[in-house]
Write a structure and sequence with these properties.
The complex is a heterodimer of chains A (253) and B (119).
Chain A (H helix, E strand, L loop, with lengths): L44 E2 L8 E9 L7 H10 L1 H4 L7 E3 L10 E6 L6 E10 L3 E7 L4 E12 L2 E12 L2 H29 L7 E8 L14 H10 L1 H14 L1
Antiparallel strand pairs in A: 1-6, 2-8, 2-9, 3-4, 4-5, 5-6, 6-7, 7-8
Chain B lengths: L5 E7 L4 E10 L4 H12 L5 E12 L1 H16 L3 E5 L3 H9 L7 E3 L2 H10 L1
Parallel strand pairs in B: 2-3, 3-4, 4-5
Antiparallel strand pairs in B: 1-2
Helix pairs in contact in B: 1-2
The chains are: A alpha+beta (253), B alpha/beta (119).
Amino acid sequence: MTTSSRRPDEGEARDAAHWAPIMEKLRVSGVPEEALSLNVEGRRVLGPLQGFGKMWQKTYRVRLSGSAATPTEVIKTWKENFPKFWGAPRGNRFYAPITGIAPGEVAVLNLGAGPMKLSTGVMVLYADDESFTLMTPQGHMLAGWITFSSFEEEGCTVAQAQEYFRGQDPLSEIALALVGHNMQEKLWEQTLRSLAAHFGVEGQPQMLVTCVDPKRQWSEAKNLWHNAAIRSMLYTVSAPARWMARPFKRLKR
Amino acid sequence: MPQARVSMSVRKGTGGASIVDIEGEVTSFCENVLMDAYTEAAAGGARAIVLNFGGLEFMNSGGIGLLVMLLIRANRQKQRLLAVGLNEHYRQIFELTRLNEAIGIYDNEAAALAAVAGA
């Protein structure tokens, strides 16, 4: 798995190699065949400014007390084992690209157990030796990004996940208020616990939640059109029709 | 936390704008420096804050996150946030993160100040 970004060319900015290239629409490649990439291919990414709901900053941290791991080692390990540490409940899958967590790569998320799967994804917006950032596409429940980083603080290595986001559309905003915030907080706390455990530390993550902007952006309510939950559900319920149409499609060819 | 490798100085522009000259690295570690500079720039009821990125040497996604926070703060005070001095690379990053949809980008300080005066 490749985990580092390329070296900058001569005359390029020092951070140039760490950023994803400009892309009008996301392209999924290098993920396992079983990954359902319904709501990722062809979508645009959305930052926290393009979301609908209240804007949140959530910071999760764990101190790797007693571990000799440096921030660079922590981030290298985190990138290489992201799906393993990802603290989502059983049945949810994070399909990292074969090329690994590298700028511009797209990962696919399949959420939920059983036949009803919610398909969405994330794009690697930025990646260097001490941090990396994932940004959400249209249709994801959240509009924003999450940065995973590691640094030294008072002689101890700290691992951190910090997200800036809004609920992407009115339905996502309701889902966030009902269960989403809670699920998301558990997910990242569990992720940090797994990362700490990898370094032999029984870490207790700390969380800081700030509502940065309580206003809802009604002009972005139109994001509902791309809502991945609705589209995934329609895809699932229309499966029999697709199955019945298959012989006709073959005849056409 | 590692120390911020950035310096920011504030000066008054025309038309009720304040200019923040940024030299060095914009990362999550420069939160205090950036927010202090903003407080100084906003004092006296500035209508607009112009961020001059002419001396920017490095910016990571943590730095972009801080700019989002700054934008929200400025919007709350009904202040416009503008950017000048961005080279092609950093313009692309603003486009990639879609910050360019909320922060006005101008080729130079004179153009930004003219936009503030004309608003």
